Amino acid sequence: MKSRGFTVEAFSSAVDFLASPNLRNTSCLIADVHMPRVTGIELHRRLVESGYAIPTILITAYPDDSVRARALADGIICYLTKPCDEDALLGCVWSALERTEPGEYHR
Protein backbone atom coordinates (compact mmCIF):
# COMPACT_ATOMS: atom_id res chain seq x y z
CA MET A 1 0.00 0.00 0.00
CA LYS A 2 2.90 2.36 0.73
CA SER A 3 4.28 1.82 -2.76
CA ARG A 4 0.87 2.89 -4.11
CA GLY A 5 1.10 6.19 -2.23
CA PHE A 6 -1.10 5.41 0.77
CA THR A 7 -0.24 6.38 4.32
CA VAL A 8 -0.03 3.14 6.30
CA GLU A 9 0.17 2.35 9.99
CA ALA A 10 0.58 -1.23 11.24
CA PHE A 11 -0.45 -2.59 14.62
CA SER A 12 0.56 -5.82 16.33
CA SER A 13 -3.01 -6.53 17.48
CA ALA A 14 -6.60 -5.34 17.34
CA VAL A 15 -6.26 -4.20 20.94
CA ASP A 16 -3.32 -1.97 20.00
CA PHE A 17 -5.32 -0.50 17.12
CA LEU A 18 -8.30 0.22 19.40
CA ALA A 19 -5.95 2.07 21.77
CA SER A 20 -4.42 4.16 18.98
CA PRO A 21 -4.83 7.94 19.09
CA ASN A 22 -5.09 7.80 15.27
CA LEU A 23 -8.24 5.67 15.34
CA ARG A 24 -10.51 8.53 14.28
CA ASN A 25 -8.21 9.38 11.35
CA THR A 26 -8.42 5.89 9.84
CA SER A 27 -10.00 5.86 6.37
CA CYS A 28 -9.71 2.13 5.73
CA LEU A 29 -8.88 -0.86 7.92
CA ILE A 30 -7.33 -4.09 6.67
CA ALA A 31 -7.42 -6.83 9.31
CA ASP A 32 -7.02 -10.57 9.57
CA VAL A 33 -10.11 -12.59 10.43
CA HIS A 34 -8.19 -14.69 12.97
CA MET A 35 -6.29 -12.56 15.46
CA PRO A 36 -5.53 -13.24 19.11
CA ARG A 37 -8.02 -11.91 21.69
CA VAL A 38 -10.16 -9.95 19.18
CA THR A 39 -11.09 -11.34 15.75
CA GLY A 40 -11.40 -9.14 12.70
CA ILE A 41 -15.20 -9.38 12.83
CA GLU A 42 -15.23 -8.52 16.55
CA LEU A 43 -12.93 -5.57 15.86
CA HIS A 44 -15.30 -4.25 13.19
CA ARG A 45 -18.31 -4.66 15.51
CA ARG A 46 -16.55 -2.84 18.36
CA LEU A 47 -15.67 0.03 16.05
CA VAL A 48 -19.25 0.34 14.79
CA GLU A 49 -20.64 0.16 18.34
CA SER A 50 -18.22 2.94 19.34
CA GLY A 51 -19.35 5.17 16.48
CA TYR A 52 -16.43 4.54 14.13
CA ALA A 53 -17.76 3.46 10.75
CA ILE A 54 -14.34 2.62 9.31
CA PRO A 55 -14.62 0.74 6.02
CA THR A 56 -13.05 -2.64 6.78
CA ILE A 57 -11.43 -5.30 4.62
CA LEU A 58 -10.89 -8.75 6.13
CA ILE A 59 -8.24 -11.21 4.98
CA THR A 60 -8.02 -14.86 5.99
CA ALA A 61 -5.95 -17.96 5.38
CA TYR A 62 -8.92 -20.07 6.51
CA PRO A 63 -11.88 -19.20 4.28
CA ASP A 64 -15.29 -20.10 5.64
CA ASP A 65 -18.46 -19.32 3.71
CA SER A 66 -20.54 -18.78 6.87
CA VAL A 67 -17.97 -16.39 8.34
CA ARG A 68 -17.77 -14.57 5.01
CA ALA A 69 -21.55 -14.21 4.82
CA ARG A 70 -21.75 -12.94 8.41
CA ALA A 71 -18.89 -10.48 7.83
CA LEU A 72 -20.43 -9.05 4.67
CA ALA A 73 -23.85 -8.83 6.38
CA ASP A 74 -22.16 -6.86 9.18
CA GLY A 75 -20.86 -4.30 6.68
CA ILE A 76 -17.38 -5.59 5.88
CA ILE A 77 -16.35 -4.17 2.48
CA CYS A 78 -14.36 -7.18 1.25
CA TYR A 79 -13.47 -10.65 2.51
CA LEU A 80 -10.31 -11.89 0.80
CA THR A 81 -8.44 -15.18 1.00
CA LYS A 82 -4.67 -15.37 1.49
CA PRO A 83 -2.62 -15.10 -0.49
CA CYS A 84 -4.70 -12.27 -1.86
CA ASP A 85 -4.25 -10.79 -5.29
CA GLU A 86 -2.70 -7.31 -5.15
CA ASP A 87 -5.19 -5.90 -7.66
CA ALA A 88 -8.14 -7.36 -5.73
CA LEU A 89 -6.87 -5.82 -2.50
CA LEU A 90 -6.29 -2.47 -4.17
CA GLY A 91 -9.81 -2.60 -5.63
CA CYS A 92 -11.20 -3.23 -2.16
CA VAL A 93 -9.22 -0.31 -0.74
CA TRP A 94 -10.57 2.03 -3.42
CA SER A 95 -14.09 0.76 -2.75
CA ALA A 96 -13.58 1.43 0.97
CA LEU A 97 -12.23 4.93 0.36
CA GLU A 98 -15.21 5.77 -1.86
CA ARG A 99 -17.37 5.27 1.24
CA THR A 100 -15.54 7.96 3.21
CA GLU A 101 -16.31 11.65 2.99
CA PRO A 102 -14.21 13.64 0.49
CA GLY A 103 -11.02 14.89 2.09
CA GLU A 104 -11.03 12.25 4.82
CA TYR A 105 -8.21 10.19 3.35
CA HIS A 106 -4.76 10.94 2.02
CA ARG A 107 -3.21 9.33 -0.99
Output the helix-strand order.
HEHEHEH
Helix share bin = 25-40%
Quick check: average pLDDT?
Answer: 90
Number of domains: 1
What does the radius of gyration come to? Answer: 13 Å
Total beta strand runs: 3
Can you say what the CATH homologous superfamily is?
A: Response regulator
| Oligomer class | single chain
Which CATH class applies here? Alpha Beta
Feature tags:
single chain, 107 residues, alpha/beta, Rossmann fold, 3-stranded parallel sheet, 4 helices, 35% helix, disordered C terminus
Polypeptide structure, described:
It is built from four helices and three strands. With 107 residues, the protein is an alpha/beta fold. The chain has one domain (2-98): 3-Layer(aba) Sandwich (Rossmann fold), CATH 3.40.50. It has a three-stranded parallel β-sheet with strand order 1-2-3, sandwiched between helices. Strand 2, helix 3 (65-73) and strand 3 form a beta-alpha-beta unit. The chain is globular, with a radius of gyration of 13 Å.
Brief account:
The protein is built from four helices and three strands; from the N terminus they run H-E-H-E-H-E-H.
Question: How are the elements arranged and paired?
Answer:
Layout lengths: L13 H5 L10 E4 L7 H10 L6 E5 L4 H9 L4 E4 L4 H13 L9
Parallel strand pairs: 1-2, 2-3
